[in-house]
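Thread: quick sanity check before group meeting

JM: Hey all, I'm pulling together slides for Thursday and realized we never actually wrote out the predicted structure for the chain we discussed last week. Dropping the sequence here so it's in one place. If anyone has concerns about the input, flag it before I start.
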Amino acid sequence: MDRLAEMEAFVHVVEQGGFTDAARKLGVSKSAISKHVAALESRLAVRLLNRTTRRVSPTEIGLAYYDRAKTVLKDAAEADDMVTAMQAEPRGALRVSVPVSFGITHLAGAVLAFLEAYPEVEVHLVLDDRFVEIVAEGFDLAIRIGTLADSSLLARKLAETRMMLVASPRYVAARGTPRTVDDLTEHQLLHYSNLSTGNVWRLRTIKGQERQIRVGGRLTANNGETLRRAAEAGLGIAMQPSFILGNAVSEGRLVEILPDHPLETVGIHAVYPPGRFTQPKLRVFIDFLAEHFRGMGPDNWHS
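JM (edit): ok, ran it. Output follows.
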């Protein structure tokens, strides 16, 4: 006989206090319940129930088995629900947090294509460079750029980007080109105020030695696109990721500074709470983004 059917019959007998009420609860005959319980006790070679003419109660072993059987039946039901949910039509609202520059320049196009492909899904896109608390603030998903902190959240890498130092040809013509990391201290440096290291750039020389360069230029901003525009205007040297700077460099509006010096390459991830991936709307959205950004590496954001 089916082990789950045996467990279910036994659990209902314990909870209903007898075979008759258990049979009524499950919508089967009393004899079917009796056969399931008898088969279970025979297979386990143990008595699970104390039977009298007036009542049925679990033995000590039966009570312990009841607790585990409840868990097994619950897990089996949740597994069935998960499969059903994963096959359901994606629908409902998704609340997504994304950094401003990446959202405007790259994610917005992907979201528009996604909405066209999945008409029953809504996307509430929140563009903010602030580090949001995904669960506490009610987000289904966040796009995170950089090294991920240890947490209970799950992540899927979508692409990679690398940090770049850039300036305009006009700035270089007027102020000269830095040849070493230490030369940067003699230049106007455009400061990104959301940098985890504060107003310090941590850079490495060609030989791998770390340098800490204090940033003290004329402009501070919490948005990378603003700093790109300032660099294009000749106001100084900016350090921003290639997904912001790629087009400007490929089109000659900016030139890369210290291109031979190693700068950090970081991942762009979709981050979401455990258990949410079973939701069709979230699963198809993450899969769609992964396909949209497939092959996007540190040096091809200009394409």
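AS: nice. DSSP finds nine helices and 13 strands in the chain. The longest helix spans residues 60-87.
JM: adding both to the slides.
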